[in-house]
Amino acid sequence: MNIAVYPGSFDPITYGHLDIIARASEIFDRVIVAVSINPGKNPLFSLEERAEMISRECANLKKVTVECFRGLLIEFVREKKASTIIRGLRAISDFEYEFQMALMNKKLYPEAETVFLVASPEFSYLSSSIVKEIASFGGDVSGLVSRHVAVKLQEKYRG
Ligand code: COA
Asked: Is this prediction's pTM over 0.85?
């Protein structure tokens, strides 16, 4: 069985992430969306809140499951017996960081390959931060995230 892990902070999940997840689920036998901690980021949603939102959005994708992890990505990949790490590439600016991460993960765990899926053009400008910024000023985020996620964002910023 070809198991792939799609890691990220997903704070929150956007239509851009969902595009990658849906396409990955066409390629692999199983896709584990791994919600994780990026030490360089200060998240708006807890890991559990992020996982709940993703599970809801992926409920119709039978090959997709959602899990949280707190340590090194490659330890999670090893534990899940996955052979592939999926990353989405939006623009050239993503490349340097992704290149470094892919090489470091390969050095730490050579058994896994990183596979890049190029983001669909309509989502190539999207990021969780830009969605949060728009929501924080009361802007319209429909078309960028689901209605459920938009409501969760509203609740956070109203609260
Ligand atoms: N559509 C829309 N947005 C996308 C996207 C897509 N297809 N692909 C990425 N993004 C956005 C994300 O929303 C995120 O936006 P933000 O910076 O505004 O939050 C940004 O691009 C990149 O984030 P993401 O893909 O979620 O990755 P990340 O950089 O937050 O997380 C981890 C990287 C979690 C995978 C990495 O930190 C990790 O592996 N952590 C575990 C510790 C570890 O193993 N470290 C060693 C790594 S070598």
From this structure: yes
